[in-house]
């Protein structure tokens, strides 16, 4: 059984070499690593003088322009470049925590389980609130989710992250793959489709990557605006499964965590970030009523709207 890894890139740094080395040392071998690079000049600058293609002989590199990049469409292109039975979607800033990532990630892919996503652990520089968010979204216990969990888990039933997730090709082809054109959230849109077709979504807590961001309030606003847009564009998945309740639960749990750990001075920052998140999400869900200038101010992906 062959396993490929597919990674979209944008202005990659030297950490890419570390990532590729870690993938090369996995307990279960990776057949090919497919790099989908946006902006050829940045990639060429990175690998200049490194003998990159000599060292990494199982690497395939494909270039797309910034205007051509699409969260769903570019990943679809990557899957078409692969012929493996299982493909793993990753991002360039997700670092395998050990040599067992691929083994632990692909182990649940049997029976009716169509996708398995990894646990995300915080980086060393991760802020306290973001550290708790990692714990909230990626607990230590594995589980398999299905449409039957909607009553108890709500929107989290469809939660899946292409920061690091493994997919069965046979089911992917059956369901038509990632959505061809989307601003964001292609992983949850596909996971929701799978769940509604009777397939399971596995969370593999033993498969770990190091990945976190210390987003500013403004970055949170832009990110959640695009999240709201993606949900508004796909009512077949998200209608009747609102995100607001889960967001409020995260805020309450984060507040309790800050008080418990003695980080009370961070409560105003939590309040600010939460407010910006909600404002972005609220406007994104209603983007069809907004002028184009307002949309371009709110989004983190201005190129997407040039293609609309």
Short description:
With 308 residues, the chain is an alpha/beta fold.
Relative helix content: 40-55%
| C-alpha geometry | globular
User: How is the main sheet built?
Assistant: 9 strands, mixed
What is the CA-based Rg, rounded?
19 Å
Order of helices and strands: EHEHHEHEEHEHEHEHHEHHHHHH
Low-confidence stretches: none
Q: What percentage of amino acids are in beta strands?
A: 15-25%
Helix tally equals 15
Give the N-terminus to C-terminus distance in angstroms: 40 Å
Give a structural overview.
The protein is an alpha/beta fold and 308 residues long. It is built from 15 helices and nine strands. The chain has helices spanning 15-24, 40-47, 52-55, 73-80, 101-106, 128-137, 150-153, 169-175, 186-196, 217-232, 235-238, 244-260, 267-285, 292-298, 302-306; strands at 3-10, 32-38, 59-64, 86-90, 95-96, 113-121, 143-145, 164-168, 200-210. Strands 1, 2, 3, 4, 5, 6, 7, 8 and 9 form a nine-stranded mixed sheet that branches. Strand 1 (3-10), helix 1 (15-24) and strand 2 (32-38) form a beta-alpha-beta unit. Helix 6 (128-137) crosses helix 12 (244-260), helix 10 (217-232) packs parallel to helix 13 and helix 12 packs antiparallel against helix 13. The longest helix has 19 residues, at 267-285. The termini are far apart. The relative contact order is 0.14. The model has no long low-confidence stretch (mean pLDDT 94).
């Amino acid at each position: 059984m062959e396993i490929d890894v597919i990674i979209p890139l944008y202005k990659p740094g030297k950490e890419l070499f570390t990532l590729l080395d870690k993938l090369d040392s996995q307990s279960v071998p990776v057949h090919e690593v497919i790099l989908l690079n946006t902006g050829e000049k940045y990639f060429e600058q990175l690998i200049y003088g490194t003998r990159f293609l000599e060292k990494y002989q199982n690497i395939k590199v494909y270039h797309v322009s910034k205007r051509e990049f699409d969260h769903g469409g570019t990943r679809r292109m990557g899957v078409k470049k692969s012929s493996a039975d299982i493909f793993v979607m990753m991002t360039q800033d997700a670092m395998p925590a050990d040599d067992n990532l691929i083994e632990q990630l692909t182990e649940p892919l049997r029976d009716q389980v169509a996708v398995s996503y990894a646990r995300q652990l915080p980086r060393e520089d991760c802020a306290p609130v973001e550290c708790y968010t990692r714990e909230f979204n990626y607990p230590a216990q594995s589980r398999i989710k299905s449409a039957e969990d909607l009553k108890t888990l709500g929107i989290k039933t469809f939660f899946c992250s292409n920061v690091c997730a493994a997919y069965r090709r046979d089911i992917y082809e059956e369901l038509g793959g990632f959505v061809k054109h989307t601003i964001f959230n292609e992983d949850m849109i596909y996971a929701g489709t799978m769940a509604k077709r009777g397939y399971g979504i596995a969370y593999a807590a033993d498969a770990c990557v190091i990945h976190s961001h210390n987003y500013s309030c403004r970055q949170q606003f832009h990110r959640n605006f695009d999240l709201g847009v993606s949900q508004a564009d796909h009512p077949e998945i998200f209608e009747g499964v609102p995100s607001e309740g889960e967001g409020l639960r995260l805020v309450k749990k984060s507040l309790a965590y800050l008080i418990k750990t003695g980080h009370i001075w961070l409560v105003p920052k939590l309040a600010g970030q939460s407010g910006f998140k909600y404002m972005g999400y609220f406007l994104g869900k209603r983007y069809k009523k907004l002028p184009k200038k307002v949309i371009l101010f709110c989004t983190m992906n201005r190129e997407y709207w040039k293609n609309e």
